[in-house]
Amino acid sequence: MQGIEREQSEQSKQSAQSEQIEQAKRLPATTIRFVISGALSLLGNSIAGVVIPLVLLARTGDALAAGTLALICAVPQMLVGLLGGALLDRVNRRSVSIISDIVSAASVALLPVVDIIWGLDFGWFVILGLLGAIGDIPGMTARDTLLPEVVKRDGIDLQRFLGIAQSLESMVTIIGPALAALLIGFGTDSAALWVTAALSLLAALITLTLPRSLGRISNGAGTQGQAHGKGVLALAKHSLTEGVRVLFKEDAILRTSMLLTFGIVMVLGSFQGLVLPFRFTELGEPALLGYVLSAMSAGLLVGSLAYTALAKRASKRAWFAMSLVGMAVAVCALGLLPPYPVMFAAALFLGFSAGPASALLGFFAYDRIPADRRGSALGTQNALMLVAAPVAVFAISVVVEVWGVGIGAIVLTSCWLAITIWALATKTMRNLG
């Protein structure tokens, strides 16, 4: 009897081990599909990020129009972001990601359709920009909230995965602007927009293959504040209050990280979204914008890989300081609006220098935000960033319209130097061990 029992026990262990092996084989596929879906969505957005500002400048010929459009969309974007964050603590996050990508695809596909039928003007850019915000912002937050659950399911270390994910994102953002440049140079801006829409739709279809359980809300999540049953504005207010408390009140390092991230988004977003597109449009070489942005992404890829491989060789504080100083040098070079070869090299070095800081700031956000309030916190973060960037772009568009693109670049460079000095001097970021 004992022999039979031992044999049954051994068979049971072997069966359990086989099941674990099979499960281990299946689980990484979830991460792979998640990464591919995110990469496709990001690829579409990186193409659109090059093409749409150029289309707007080509149709209006006015730098102030680009800044005004960004500002008009800012408040609705913030509201959608806050609502998205609140909903992500209450509804299935996978479903939100799928719907968001579909809406985003529709908003981009309608640009060439409207251009053919009626012709694009400023009003159409506003309408379709608002529709795009409904898709992009909740979708971005949904992916952020799903990421920790995906790596947890597959047993992957979060910090290590963030370094790898940053590298993959950098590869995608190298390909995207370069592809946009090729489509503009050898085709039309409409072709680039169709490609963007197709990529967003494909991202939604791949997300649909992920297990629905990944996006399910745990019993304890979403109960903070009990905003159920209240109106839209009350729900948004609750999400904002909860998110601001998490991001800016409860953790000093997280607070400083968020403020620095806002500075990066405002300064570099203004360079990418207005100053550089205006400069290359002014020179009659819009396709060059894509190659400069690809160089920045290529640098970010190399910098992220270097940080992933060498992170243990230096302290987090050392990486943080080296990264910010390198970025400051690159931004100063870029702010002079030098000839194209120098600008290309400055963009490459800027991306390389930003790699460690980007990985560190991302790790602080994911590591320090409580899981049950991640939707509200990340929704608030994304919403505030999507307001901060348009405000900065509008302010610089006024400067460019009145004093020229050169003065606008100098203003942005001065702002970045001030941000760098503050970030290096603040006590909060001196001990990051």
Largest sheet: number of strands, sense, barrel closure: none
Compute the separation of the termini in Å.
57 Å
Radius of gyration based on Cα positions? 23 Å
Structural class label: mainly alpha
Spans of 5+ residues with little confidence (pLDDT < 50)?
A: 12-27, 220-229
Helix proportion:
over 70%
Quote the beta fraction. under 5%
Shape: globular
Strand tally is 0
* Number of helices, counting only DSSP H or I runs of 4 residues or more: 13
Order of helices and strands: HHHHHHHHHHHHH
Mean pLDDT score, rounded? 80
> Which oligomeric form is depicted?
single chain
Provide keyphrases for this structure:
433 residues; mainly alpha; 13 helices; 84% helix; globular
Quick summary:
With 433 residues, the chain is mostly helical. Helix content is 84%, strand content 0%.
Topology:
Elements: H1 2-60, H2 63-87, H3 93-117, H4 122-153, H5 158-186, H6 189-207, H7 232-249, H8 252-282, H9 287-310, H10 316-335, H11 340-368, H12 374-403, H13 405-425
What does this molecule look like?
With 433 residues, this protein is mainly alpha-helical. It has 13 helices and no strands.
